[in-house]
Amino acid sequence: MSNLTAFESEEQDGYIKIDQYNQKQVEEIASYYPAILRALGENPEREGLVKTPERVAKALQFLTHGNDVDAAEVLRSAMFEEEYSQMVVVKDIEVYSLCEHHMLPFFGKAHIAYIPNGHIVGLSKIPRVVDAFARRLQVQERLTNEIRDCIQETLKPAGVAVVIECKHMCMAMRGVQKQNSVTTTSAFTGAFQNDVTRSEFLRLIMASLD
Ligand SMILES: [Zn+2]
């Protein structure tokens, strides 16, 4: 993260929001957008568009900043030895990602469980792992597997379960498929490959799978 510099800060509702951008990358991405706007038949000089290239560049940088996050390190920073060995479920984690085929958003919820095997992890770290992999150019299937593999390899639990349900704007906005369809993906390791354990997990998250 050392190549990032605090670029602007603004006070909002009493808290200081600090956005960090790689200024060189912002400038490079922004430099292409006047040509893209012209190719779309727009006038990049008109008032509403003058700052658009820079805004788009910053947005894209933010939406892909997961590339700079070491998700395993996020988990390792809050792992504790603990004998607890029942299922730990974190559900309704917000997911915002960018489909790598169209660079349009897909978003929804992730439900994650693991069964500790000597270690537990601070609960707030699970959503941060989701974010680390979601803030990249992604497909939902790979996102699901990357979260599962990161938790399995780092925490070494008796099993990991990941279910993600998302709406894809490339489907909804382009009207190519049912507008409100939700895509569900899942990935399991260890104990969750057992029907009874997996069913218990699915029952626990079912309230939000509607
Ligand atoms: Zn897409």
From TrEMBL:
Keywords: GTP-binding, Hydrolase, Metal-binding, Nucleotide-binding, One-carbon metabolism, Zinc. One of its GO terms (molecular function) is GTP binding. Residues 34-205 form the GTP cyclohydrolase I domain. Its EC number is 3.5.4.16. Pathway: Cofactor biosynthesis; 7,8-dihydroneopterin triphosphate biosynthesis; 7,8-dihydroneopterin triphosphate from GTP: step 1/1. GO terms for cellular component: cytoplasm. It comes from the Bacteria. Belongs to the GTP cyclohydrolase I family. This is GTP cyclohydrolase 1. The lineage of its organism: Bacteria, Pseudomonadati, Bacteroidota, Sphingobacteriia, Sphingobacteriales. The gene is folE.
